[in-house]
Amino acid sequence: MLQRGSLGPQRNNLPEPKHIPGRTPPPANVMDSFDPGPTGGDTAENGPVLVIPPSPRKPTRWEIWRSRLFLVELMFVCFVVGIILIVAPWTEFWTNNSLLSGFPQVREFLMYDFVRGLISGLGLTDIWLAVTEAIRYRDQVE
């Protein structure tokens, strides 16, 4: 039954939802897509609450320089590790590694060219990570 000036049926005229076996009924204070909204009373009490996040504060000079120094350090570490991973599998150190003398099967596996290429590819990925971090970096000055 519609009343004059209303946009939809009043809540008290709607049938109560039926309980479905095996499901827990929804709490009384939860609105679903079939709920026409709050009934009567003050809309400030029953209406939705708008939550506005606090405005971000401007970073201090130290925080900006700290993030810049962290970026430089990250780039340096990624470049060094990447270069080592690219070059090391193809050097004499890799083939005459005394740490692997007790593990001949592991040593034989590490001598395969595809394993060496895989490790060099990991080094290229590490260098790519450093470059993309440098490109993506933006100061948080507002």
Keywords:
142 residues, mainly alpha, 5 helices, 46% helix, 0% strand
Q: What's the short version?
A:
This protein has 142 residues and is mainly α.
Show the helix and strand layout.
Layout lengths: L42 H4 L14 H27 L4 H4 L8 H7 L2 H24 L6
Helix pairs in contact: 2-5
What does this structure look like?
- Helices cover 46% and strands 0% of the residues.
- Helix 2 runs antiparallel to helix 5.
- The chain has 5 helices and no strands.
- The two termini are 55 Å apart.
- The chain has a domain at 61-136.
- The mean pLDDT is 79.
- The protein is mainly α and 142 residues long.
Number of strands: 0
Which ranges are low-confidence, i.e. pLDDT below 50, for 5 or more consecutive residues?
none
Query: Mean of residue pLDDT?
Result: 79
Succession of helices and strands: HHHHH
Please describe the biggest sheet, giving its number of strands, its sense, and whether it closes into a barrel: none
Shape by Cα distribution: flat
In what range is the share of β-strand residues? under 5%
Class from secondary-structure proportions: mainly alpha
